[in-house]
């Protein structure tokens, strides 16, 4: 069975560790957090489920795991407008995580925001091959889009590509190509605000991300070869390079098996290019940090 490390055991890291243990998807876990009291509390709380799981808190064990998930770093609060605003705050958490990944031959899932740029940053500071670094967020955004579509009586599921942030790109052409542009823009504007509604109400998003991260782990562990939207290192796909961005990718036990090239309509294409320009611009600013 799969061995997995969680780097940063707060709301999302702890929630994912709990779900994966409860779903019986992992046999060995490393749980690490710089807050040692929290780390120990999460370890004990999971062991008290009584399930058969081994837990280490030694970060040096991370490199021997099949999957490492980076969930360390500050989340947004209502005063932080966009995920991109967290970039410089959260780079040190990525640096700390990368320090334990020398010789790691498994799959790295990046959750820390701004997720696309942090995923790219990991690519530049570690030796992990590009098919083994996956940025998480597209599944969650797509579930939010599907929820909105359902409220509009449009048959889903919906899919979101582009940035996990303000430059997300809902793919309307696959669900209702006839939806007028004004309605598309209205839906997009609602989607941009959908997680902040939760952050304002309960301090953080929790159940949605934890569930979809556990699904991603299941897809990898079972070698499902399922196509999901996730952030991948791009080298010309969709005409974009020099960044990570949400694209449809087939995922299995080797990580990213293939990036699918979907036909986008002109509205989607323009939004995807804008996402590429925005995210690659931020990625370029990190060049001195390598
Ligand atoms: N990609 C997504 O879809 C998605 C979804 C939800 C949250 N997030 C992001 O995930 C991150 C974590 O969110 P959260 O709600 O769990 O936050 P949280 O504050 O509850 O947990 C983060 C944990 O990281 C730990 N940490 C910080 N720096 C560390 C370091 N250098 N080494 C070890 N541990 C460190 C903290 O002690 C804390 O316990 C945030 O950046 C948030 O924006 C992304
Ligand atoms: O919105 C956030 O800041 C948290 C996370 O990226 C989410 O989409 O739930």
TrEMBL record:
Annotated binding of substrate, by residue: 76, 83, 113, 144
Gene3D superfamilies found in the cross-reference section: Lactate dehydrogenase/glycoside hydrolase, family 4, C-terminal, NAD(P)-binding Rossmann-like Domain
Any single biological process term in GO: tricarboxylic acid cycle
Superkingdom assignment: Archaea
InterPro entries attached to this UniProt entry: L-lactate/malate_DH, Lactate/malate_DH_C, Lactate/malate_DH_N, Lactate_DH/Glyco_Ohase_4_C, NAD(P)-bd_dom_sf
Keyword Calcium: no
Catalytic activity: (S)-malate + NAD(+) = oxaloacetate + NADH + H(+)
EC number: 1.1.1.37
Residues where NAD(+) binds: 8-13, 33, 90, 111-113
Function per UniProt: Catalyzes the reversible oxidation of malate to oxaloacetate.
Protein name: malate dehydrogenase
């Amino acid at each position: 069975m799969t061995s997995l490390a969680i780097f940063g055991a707060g709301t999302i890291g702890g929630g994912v560790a709990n779900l994966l243990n409860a779903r019986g998807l992992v046999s060995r876990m490393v749980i690490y957090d710089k807050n040692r009291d929290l780390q120990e509390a999460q370890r004990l709380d999971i062991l008290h489920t009584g399930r058969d799981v081994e837990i280490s808190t030694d970060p040096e064990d991370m490199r021997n795991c099949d999957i490492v998930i980076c969930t360390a770093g500050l989340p947004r609060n209502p005063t932080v407008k966009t995920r991109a605003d967290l970039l410089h705050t959260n780079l040190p958490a990525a640096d700390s995580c990368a320090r334990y990944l020398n010789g790691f031959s498994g799959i790295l899932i990046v959750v820390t925001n701004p997720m696309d740029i942090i995923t790219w940053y990991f690519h530049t500071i570690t030796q992990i091959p590009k098919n083994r670094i996956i940025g998480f967020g597209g599944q969650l955004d797509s579930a939010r889009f599907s929820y909105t579509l359902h409220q509009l009586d449009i048959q889903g599921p919906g899919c979101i590509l582009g940035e996990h942030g303000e430059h997300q790109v809902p793919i309307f052409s696959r669900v209702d190509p006839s939806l007028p542009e004004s309605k598309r823009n209205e839906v997009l504007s609602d989607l941009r605000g959908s997680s902040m509604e939760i952050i304002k109400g309960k301090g953080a998003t929790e159940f949605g991300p934890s569930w979809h991260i556990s699904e991603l782990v299941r897809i990898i562990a079972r070698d499902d070869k399922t196509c999901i939207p996730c952030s991948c290192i791009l080298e010309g796909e969709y005409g974009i390079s020099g960044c990570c961005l949400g694209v449809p990718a087939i995922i299995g036990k080797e990580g990213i098996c293939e990036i699918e090239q979907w036909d986008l309509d002109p509205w989607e294409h323009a939004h995807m290019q804008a996402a590429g320009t925005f995210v690659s611009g931020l990625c370029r600013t990190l060049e001195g940090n390598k």
